[in-house]
Design brief:
The protein is an alpha+beta fold. It has six helices and eight strands; from the N terminus they run H-E-H-E-E-H-E-E-E-H-E-E-H-H. Strand 2 and strand 3 form a beta hairpin. The radius of gyration is 22 Å and the shape is elongated.
């Protein structure tokens, strides 16, 4: 009987601690541009796992909705969240935080085709297989006026590009790359252009 009472008390304490932990979590929801496949979602989730203590991660590939909970005491900011999305190679469109204390924080929707002053550096998924793909992707990106630096990793399929935000946009760079035969997150190469690529360059296409 005594042991039963002790177990009941311990269970009650654990339940109370769990409930308090859930109440002390901030809730985040981000609208992410460019989640085209399960691999994209995996990469985003893996990047956010760098935030120790993250819970209840959910990603909807179709809608781009990305949500998670994070301990309130760590005061994770809108800026930190949006920067981490960009570090994963994607673009945050809107971000909303429901703080544990009831406060709501939101960011304004970003217009992806909007030009902004200054040098902009972005990470972007571009499909490809080999060194020939790398040369083709690099040439296409550099053909866009305003692009200053570009690198593409054939292992991760991630491209890092720097450009003058007042001259061009990431969308315009993606279009140029797609015209050269390589799918990006937001722009797909025409089938005829893709089919004309050398056999070694016929990559697995990115779902749109």
């Amino acid at each position: 009987m005594k042991n039963t009472i002790i177990i009941t008390v311990i269970f009650g304490i654990m339940t109370m601690l769990s409930a308090n932990a859930q109440q002390n979590m901030d809730k985040f929801r981000v609208q992410v541009d460019g989640l085209g496949c399960p691999f994209c979602a995996y990469g985003l989730e893996k990047k956010f796992k760098e935030f120790k203590g993250i819970k209840s991660v959910k990603i909807d590939i179709e809608t781009g909705d990305f949500s998670f909970n994070y301990p309130a005491e760590k005061a994770l900011s809108l800026t930190d969240v949006e920067k981490q999305v960009e570090n994963a190679g994607y673009t945050p469109i809107t971000t909303k935080i429901e703080r544990a204390n009831g406060k709501i924080e939101t960011s304004e929707a970003k217009i992806l085709s909007e030009k902004t002053k200054g040098t902009v550096t972005k990470n972007l998924m571009v499909a490809g297989n080999c060194g020939m793909c790398e040369a083709r992707i690099t040439k296409a990106a550099k053909s866009v006026v305003g692009v200053s630096e570009i690198s593409w990793n054939k292992e991760t399929k991630m491209m890092k590009v720097s450009f003058d935000g007042g001259t061009t946009t990431l969308s315009e760079i993606e279009i140029a790359i797609a015209k050269a035969g390589h799918d990006t997150k937001n722009h797909k190469a025409q089938t005829s252009t893709y089919n004309d690529l050398p056999p070694c360059c016929l990559y697995d296409r990115i779902a749109q």
